[in-house]
Amino acid sequence: MSDSAAIAIEFVNVHYRTNGNRELISGLNLAIHRGETLMLLGRSGSGKTTTLKLINRLLSATEGEVRVDGRATTEWDAIRLRRHIGYAIQEAGLFPHYSVEENVALIPRLEGWEPARIRSRVQEVLHLVGLPFDQFAPRYPDQLSGGQRQRVGLARALAADPQILLMDEPFGALDPITRAELQQEFLELKQTLSKTVVFVTHDVAEALMLGDRIALMDSGRLIGIFAPPEFLRSTNPAVQPYVNAFRAGHQILEARRLT
Amino acid sequence: MPLFAFFAVDKRQMLTLTLEHLGLVGISMLIVVATGVPLGILLSRRPGWKGVVLKSTNVIQTVPSLALFGLLLPVPWLGARADRLAIFALSLYALLPVVRNTYVGITGVDPPVREAAIGMGLTPWQLLWHVELPLASHVILAGIRTATVITVGVATIAAAIGAGGLGEFIFRGLAMVDNRVILAGAVPAAVMALSADLLLGLLQRTLVRGQH
Description:
The complex is a heterodimer of chains A (about 260) and B (about 210).
Chain A: E1 7-17, E2 23-33, E3 37-41, H1 48-55, E4 63-68, E5 71-72, H2 78-83, E6 85-89, H3 100-110, H4 115-128, H5 133-136, H6 146-158, E7 164-168, H7 176-193, E8 196-201, H8 204-210, E9 213-218, E10 221-226, H9 228-233, H10 240-258
Helix pairs in contact in A: 3-4, 3-6, 4-6
Chain B: H1 3-7, H2 11-45, H3 50-62, H4 65-72, H5 76-79, H6 82-107, H7 111-120, H8 124-154, H9 167-176, H10 179-210
Helix pairs in contact in B: 2-6, 2-8, 2-10, 3-6, 4-6, 6-8, 7-8, 8-10, 9-10
């Protein structure tokens, strides 16, 4: 079934060890389908961010092969590979000395787009993430709220229209209300854009809500891949703590409503 | 009483020595910026070299300036001309703050900002040019500012090896035991140091404002 055109990213027996020879990823095999949103779920140190960084070659596999669009990342020119992939991280990592417009426009500018095309693209992506251009384009990152910064980070990742989007706990540092808003908008965005998204989170609810599939990781290993309903039904002992935590939250809510 | 009468020196000579002094400081600082900033950038890329480079520039600064001028005198090509030697010694002396501040400024860039830049596909040069240098610029400029003020002062000692500058008046005044002649060197040097400090300070504030 592994039709290569349907697979955007593939991990083939990937190991990653640090210089200190600590194994952060062990024998990872994973195929990410074109157009799906795959959630990488796990606790801190489980290897999910490492997995993400292996995709855009911020890290290189010690053993095995990571393929993007059928080609090993080591065969790609690293810069071309990264520009082919959008990257949004927690705290957004916006350039504080650039306005919102300049932040979003940077990669198109470095790619040598025409100024008019850059401007219309910036307008388009800011609109996509719900920021009116006239109001936000001239602002600087320190004049934005956390949620707005995260939106700009997403707009910047989308600017050059990459087919693949990597998101590393993009909503992790937001207050619960803003996070819920952004999650909702992400779901809508996902429908309109149909990109391949790899999304790192440690939040079970977020994984269940946003993912087409959930890849559960623990100590550098892939425990399994589940569609959200499967995840909730799974009897896998590694899945249980997550499901329990998720259910416990609901039970507490339920109990409080009854009293 | 006219100003120049008070200083008990020739007006034209005062102008000449002030210009000489400016020349020594200006050329030295050009060399310091042209070598110190790239050196600081290099250290940020090769942190392993940091210890050696920062320590050796530090050691240079601990050598008393008068001794540094004297010690360099027998060096073949350098010692042949007093101004050449003076500029070399001044540049060595002023290197530390510029190298250190460039290194600190660049490594001080917020890690998520750098990581996002690399992850987006900026080349190392683009990272330096579009992100690291602009964000480090006010710290680098603070180093250049410190270095300039030091250099204006240390350059007065260049007169001891015959390289000219406002130190001429100071040494002459010392020999003549005439405070007015000493002041004829010291006051313009102080004014020069304060002006450089003020101007670079203004530039620094403009940069900080420019980048929010």
